[in-house]
C-alpha cells in the first residue's frame, strides 16, 4: 500500500522511479481505508535527503500512511529553502491538537552541545511530552534517541575519544521481540556519531530493554518496556553512499577523520561502498508500522 505525500514534494518523482507506491491526497480521499498518520520531526540539516530515506521505508509496507513533516519553530534551518519548509512542513503549534499513530524524531549534528544548550531543546521537550498521550508509538533516531533517553529516562550521553563511524556488527538479545522479527542473529548497520550512551545504564533501567548492541558493547536498539518508545542510536535509514558523503565532506574541511570502519571495499575510499544493511532496515520499519503502530493504535482517536 502507498504513502500519501504532497503532489509537489521533490522526493515524489524519485520514489516513483524506484517503484515505491506513492499516492496524492485526492486519490487517498477516495479510498475507504483508515490510513496511519505519521508525524516526522526532521532535525537533519539536509532535509530533502532525509525525507527521501524515510519515505522509501515507510512506503514499503501493506499499510496506507499519511505523512506530515514537522520543523522547529525556534530554529531556522540553513540548508533548505524557506519555500520548501513553508510548503511541506508545519510547526508543533499547528498539530498539537491532533492525535498521531506514529512519530519519528531524527538525528541532528549537534552532539557537541549539552541538551540544554540546544536552541530548540524546550520545544523538543514539549513535543516528547505531548507524544505520551497523543502518539501511539515513537521512533527516535541517533541524536534523537539520545535526547529521548535523557528526557524520558534520565540517561546521559557521553563523548567518545573518536568518532564512531562505519558499518558495525550487531547482535540481538531478545529475538522473540516483534520489532526484530525476521532479523538474523547478527546483522550490520551504520553509525556516525561522536557520543554514546551507557549499555550498563540501559540494562539497569527498570523501564528499558537493550534489544541490540554492537560487538563493542555500544547500544543500538533500545525499547521501552511499555513498547511506546523505540530508540535507535545508529542510522539504518542511511543510503549506501551517505557515510561516503560524510567522509568526503570532513576530508574537505581538513578534519582528522578516519575511513569509515567496514564500509569501503578493502577500506579503499575510491571504491563504491555496498549497502549491507538494507534488508534489516526494511524489516525494522515494517515491523514498527505493523506491530507497534497499526496493531496498537485506536481506529477512532477521541
From TrEMBL:
Site, as annotated: Important for substrate specificity: 192
UniProt cross-references to Pfam families, sorted A to Z: HTS
A single GO BP: L-methionine biosynthetic process from homoserine via O-succinyl-L-homoserine and cystathionine
Pathway: Amino-acid biosynthesis; L-methionine biosynthesis via de novo pathway; O-acetyl-L-homoserine from L-homoserine: step 1/1
Location relative to the cell: Cytoplasm
Sites marked Important for acyl-CoA specificity: 111
Entry keyword Nucleotide-binding: no
Annotated catalytic residues: 142 (acyl-thioester intermediate), 235 (proton acceptor), 237
Amino acids binding substrate: 163, 192, 249
Its job: Transfers an acetyl group from acetyl-CoA to L-homoserine, forming acetyl-L-homoserine.
Protein name per its UniProtKB record: Homoserine O-acetyltransferase
The encoding gene: metA
Amino acid at each position: 500500500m502507498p504513502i500519501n505525500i504532497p503532489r509537489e514534494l521533490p522526493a515524489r518523482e524519485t520514489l516513483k522511479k524506484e517503484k515505491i507506491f506513492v499516492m496524492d491526497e485526492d486519490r487517498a480521499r477516495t479510498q475507504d481505508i483508515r490510513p496511519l498518520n505519521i508525524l516526522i520531526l526532521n532535525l537533519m540539516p539536509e532535509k530533502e535527503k532525509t525525507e527521501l530515506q524515510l519515505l522509501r521505508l515507510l512506503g514499503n509496507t501493506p499499510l496506507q500512511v499519511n505523512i506530515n513533516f514537522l520543523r522547529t519553530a525556534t530554529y531556522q534551518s540553513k540548508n533548505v529553502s524557506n519555500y520548501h519548509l513553508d510548503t511541506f512542513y508545519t510547526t508543533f503549534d499547528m498539530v498539537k491538537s491532533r492525535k498521531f499513530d506514529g512519530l519519528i524524531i531524527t538525528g541532528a549534528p549537534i552532539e557537541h552541545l549539552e541538551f540544554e544548550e540546544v536552541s530548540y531543546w524546550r520545544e523538543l521537550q514539549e513535543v516528547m511530552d505531548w507524544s505520551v498521550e497523543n502518539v501511539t508509538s515513537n521512533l527516535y533516531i541517533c541524536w534523537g534517541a539520545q535526547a529521548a533517553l535523557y528526557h524520558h529516562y534520565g540517561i546521559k550521553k557521553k563523548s567518545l575519544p573518536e568518532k564512531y563511524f562505519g558499518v558495525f556488527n550487531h547482535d540481538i538479545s531478545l529475538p522473540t521481540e516483534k520489532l526484530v522479527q525476521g532479523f538474523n542473529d547478527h546483522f550490520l548497520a551504520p553509525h556516525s556519531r561522536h557520543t554514546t550512551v551507557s549499555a550498563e545504564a540501559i540494562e539497569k533501567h527498570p523501564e528499558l530493554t537493550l534489544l541490540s548492541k554492537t560487538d563493542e558493547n555500544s547500544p543500538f536498539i533500545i525499547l521501552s518496556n511499555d513498547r511506546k518508545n523505540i530508540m535507535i542510536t545508529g542510522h539504518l535509514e542511511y543510503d549506501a553512499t551517505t557515510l561516503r558523503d560524510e567522509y568526503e565532506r570532513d576530508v574537505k574541511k581538513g578534519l582528522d577523520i578516519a575511513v569509515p570502519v567496514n564500509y569501503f571495499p578493502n577500506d579503499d575510499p575510491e571504491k563504491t561502498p555496498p549497502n549491507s544493511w538494507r534488508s534489516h532496515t526494511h524489516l525494522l520499519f515494517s515491523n514498527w508500522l505493523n506491530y507497534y503502530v497499526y496493531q496498537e493504535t485506536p481506529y477512532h482517536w477521541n
